[in-house]
Design a protein that fits this description.
- By secondary structure, the chain is an alpha+beta fold.
- It has a single domain, classed as Hypothetical protein Ta1206 fold.
- Helices cover 25% and strands 32% of the residues.
- The longest helix has 8 residues.
- It is globular and about 35 Å long.
């Protein structure tokens, strides 16, 4: 099962995608400047590809993801002013 939603972030929109895997859900919130991803995110790869990537954990739905906080981030996300512990809703405005 795949769910897709458009979420308003300021004057822009973010694509929110949930893919049901065998035991967990893969969740990605993508804007034009970067993305937020559940625990499946490989930060080493995100840094290698110079992605502005944010990792969140303990989420099982898009709603959970929207209420989460940043648990880790790539160097390039940090350059956008994103920091550990920041709310996802704040990050969405930055990456939209």
């Amino acid at each position: 099962m795949i769910k897709h939603k458009k979420i308003k972030a300021g004057k822009k929109y973010i694509d929110a995608v949930l893919i049901k895997l065998s035991s967990k859900n893969l969740i990605v919130l993508k804007g034009s400047r970067g993305y937020i991803m559940c625990g499946y995110l490989n930060l080493k790869a995100a840094n290698k590809f110079k992605d502005a990537a944010v990792k969140i954990t303990g989420v099982n739905s898009i709603k959970d993801a929207l209420n989460a906080e940043v648990s880790a981030l790539s160097r390039y996300a940090g350059k956008l002013g994103i920091y550990k512990g920041q709310s996802v809703r704040e990050v969405l405005k930055i990456i939209a």
